[in-house]
Amino acid sequence: MKLLALLLLLGVVYPSLNEVVKSFKAKCPEFFVKNQHSHEVDPPTLLKGNQFKCICQRWKGKYRYATLYDIKRRIPIYSAYKFEGKKDIPRNGNWKTEPQLDEGLKPENREMREMRPAQEEKLPFKNQARNNDYPRAGAYTRGHLFPNSYAADADQAESTFTLTNAAPQMQDSNEEWAKKVEELMWEEIKHNCMVNKTFPAYIVTGVVPGNVWVAIERERRTITQGVNIPTHYWSAYLCINSASSRLSRAFLAQQIYEIKPNRKTQFKKSNMTVADLESKLTGLFKQPFRVF
Ligand SMILES: *[C@@H]1O[C@H](CO)[C@@H](O)[C@H](O)[C@H]1NC(C)=O
Ligand SMILES: *[C@@H]1O[C@H](CO)[C@@H](O)[C@H](O)[C@H]1NC(C)=O
């Protein structure tokens, strides 16, 4: 009993079950680029504060990617993943949630759970979005950060369908992002990089939170600041070419709100260096922000 109490105090009772983790480095370092000088794993900037949770996204017994999640805004800030080439696996998967964000650590929460309405009733969903928040979002769709189309296999593709990997995105902005960022990024990687299981490209895709929110219902009360609507989506890749040099590029797209019917969202996309993106993000987050 004493030993158990001590172990609990030290937080070592379920060391291998902790998927909402203190640091990405300890639990799922494989999704991050190593610093060229120190050779240490170097995740993107971890925003400070209790509202930001590191999730090693686990599904069917394996880590699939990593996400920095904001439990106050109920959206991810970024997802980091390895890309082995576009496999175009057919769309498959129900939307899931991360029980540990709401229930804390329990052994049965080792993996993301399939979302089902019955289970949905049981979680308070205080710290994350749930499926029926999105129909209330009107014009906004669930914009994937790690896209289904970039998954290496069916299980990884399924694992992208979790609400901790999605944020509100206007339908046309979602389509433009797929066409003008994801497709073009793949073309570039395909032509310039080695890209397979041994030499993956590393990609980080994220958002910049805004001041507009989707209202949600919790316990029969309306929360006006429910799910945050990002002002920007961004993405950057880093890969190795056949001469073993690092290549990278970044993209930033602004999502301009036009809630009025029949008015298209403006989608301003730019293609830039990673350093340019980092400097833009530093301005937008009002703190130093590093991607690779
Ligand atoms: C990005 O810009 C560079 C340089 O202007 C250009 O060579 C490249 O094709 C562009 N890539 C995409 C995906 O737009
Ligand atoms: C990955 O690509 C490199 C370079 O094209 C090649 O040498 C290597 O054999 C490939 N590995 C696999 C597992 O396909």
TrEMBL record:
Record keywords, A-Z: Endonuclease, Hydrolase, Nuclease, Signal
Signal sequence residues: 1-18
Residue span, DNA/RNA non-specific endonuclease/pyrophosphatase/phosphodiesterase domain: 61-287
Coiled coil spans: none
Domain ENPP1-3/EXOG-like endonuclease/phosphodiesterase: 62-290
MF term (GO), any: metal ion binding
Name of this chain's protein: Endonuclease domain-containing 1 protein-like
InterPro entries: DNA/RNA_non-sp_Endonuclease_sf, Endo_G_ENPP1-like_dom, ENDOD1, ENPP1-3/EXOG-like_nuc-like, His-Me_finger_sf
Keyword Hydrolase attributed: yes
Native source organism of the sequence: Astyanax mexicanus
